[in-house]
Write a structure and sequence with these properties.
This protein is mainly α. It contains twelve helices and no strands. Helices cover 77% and strands 0% of the residues.
Length: 247
């Protein structure tokens, strides 16, 4: 049952997910009693505005990267659709069992996000070099994960780009934004016809994600991002452990 409290809490969770690339939205929905698959479907649809905001925010870093996008975005779209189909096709009971492990995995990714970024920063150069087609398959596989579950996708994609392409971190991060957006939107379009989107929650969470993304851009220099990130990591770990114990 969708009470006013549930809707408000879902909106706040989506706002947090807009501030950081985390599992706040989906994990909160499941915690509030929404069935796991339905919660993940709704979360994917609702967070599209947040991904769009991230891509638009880095549009200047995308200049001259048309070749990369033409090579990688189709792989992201196909992977996102495959992941979405898997989510709808695999039984809800199986997904319910996988949820705690996926949440804990995502929390771990978020915890090491800075180390991944620092590693990529140390191994990238100041000028872009030729694209490597070896990124297509890993990006496609990452997008399958994104369409199936979603949270933590950006960390995985950035790691793949850092391993397969030689460029500055801001430019790789801009490509990451477009890939994450493409995979998420592809899965979300599929979910629109699934009948599993909880639209009151999706609309509130969409507004929350957009507000969170915009707020994050304005207060990025005024808050401690590590504190916010580790708060989400701890919340995710607690949610994952609770769900694991319920099994």
């Amino acid at each position: 049952m969708l009470t006013g409290t549930v809707i408000v809490l879902a909106g706040l969770a989506a706002c947090a997910a807009g501030l950081v690339n985390a599992l706040a939205g989906g994990g909160a929905l499941i915690s509030l009693g929404v069935p796991a698959v339905m919660a993940n479907v709704t979360n994917t649809v609702a967070l599209c505005p947040g991904y769009l905001g991230g891509a638009v925010a880095q549009k200047n870093d995308l200049r001259g990267q048309g070749k990369r996008l033409r090579m990688l975005v189709p792989a992201a779209v196909i992977g996102g659709i495959i992941g979405g189909i898997l989510l709808l096709w695999i039984s809800s009971e199986v997904f319910q069992v996988l949820v705690p492990f996926l949440i804990l995995f995502t929390s771990g990714l978020l915890a090491i996000q800075d180390r991944v970024r620092d590693w990529i920063g140390r191994h990238t150069t100041g000028a872009g070099t030729a694209d490597r087609k070896g990124a297509v398959v890993p990006i496609g596989l990452a997008a399958v994960y994104g369409g199936y579950f979603g949270p933590g996708l950006s960390v995985i994609v950035l790691a793949v780009l850092g391993l397969t392409m030689d460029d500055t971190l801001p430019r790789l991060n801009a490509v990451k934004q477009c890939i994450s957006l493409s995979a998420n939107v592809a899965a979300a379009v599929l979910f629109l016809f699934s009948g599993m989107v909880v639209w009151p929650l999706a609309l509130v969470m969409g507004a929350g994600a957009l507000a969170g993304g915009m707020l994050g851009g304005k207060i990025a220099g005024r808050i401690n991002p590590d504190l916010l990130r580790w708060t989400i990591v701890v919340i995710g770990a607690v949610i994952g452990i609770v769900f694991l114990l319920r099994l």
